[in-house]
Amino acid sequence: MKVLIAEDEQDTLQLLSVFFRGKGYEVIGASDGIGTMEALEREAPDLVLLDIRMPRLNGWEVLEKVRRKRDTPVIIISALDGVDDAVRGLVLGADDYLRKPFDLSELEARVEAVLRRVRSAEEGACLEVGPIQIDDRSKTVLLHGKEVKLSPREYHLLRLLVASPGRVFGHQEIIEQVWPAENRADTSDVKQYIHLLRSKIEGESTDPQLIVTVKGFGYKFAG
């Protein structure tokens, strides 16, 4: 894993670099905001440790720029110890906020926790149940290895069912999960989209085997 350490205090930068290299991380260092942005573009790190008080773009400015186009995990490490500072960092999109001075073992634990969350999210981005594969990153659906073209609502409906195979979803729960609050649907809309989805997943079969009706209750994915 590659860690970018953005820190203008050279002693702290050196300490953190030695520590994380000793833990098996590849380390890139930057001592100001511009250098941090350049390293992000050049190195594509897995995580950023970001100081706030840096020259040539402070940490707040760097974080705002990062979040406009990247979801790289960021942990702020700062001497600013006010609650408002921590809240500001989290609101701007930081994944964690650690005040200086800190214990290196605590920092390591926080880095590992953030990276675990990222890995779990990435692993959960792809669902595979029976003949269906759903990739949330590319918003694609494969049926027996061949792509199926779905509308956004069909996609979200299928994903809801496939994510919990065997679980029965009632009409109202499907409406709440798939339709936005400002565009509420009714039972007939659910039935229409179930029919559309089945026509693309199971053809015109009169005996659906994947998206199954449970009479009086709703629908389930039985793949």
Name the CATH architecture of the largest domain. 3-Layer(aba) Sandwich
User: What is the overall number of helices?
Assistant: 8
Element order, helices and strands? EHEHEHEHEHEEEEHHHEE
Query: How many strands, what sense, and barrel or not for the largest sheet?
Result: 5 strands, parallel
Beta-strand residue fraction: 15-25%
- CATH class value of the largest domain: Alpha Beta
Question: What is the rounded distance between the termini?
Answer: 36 Å
Instruction: Specify the structural class.
Output: alpha/beta
- Enumerate the spans where pLDDT stays under 50 for 5 or more consecutive residues: none
Measured as a percent range, the helix fraction is 40-55%
CATH superfamily of the largest domain: Response regulator
On the 0 to 100 scale, the average pLDDT is: 90
Primary descriptors:
11 strands, 5-stranded parallel beta sheet, single chain, 2 domains, Arc Repressor Mutant, subunit A, elongated, alpha/beta, 45% helix, Rossmann fold, 223 residues
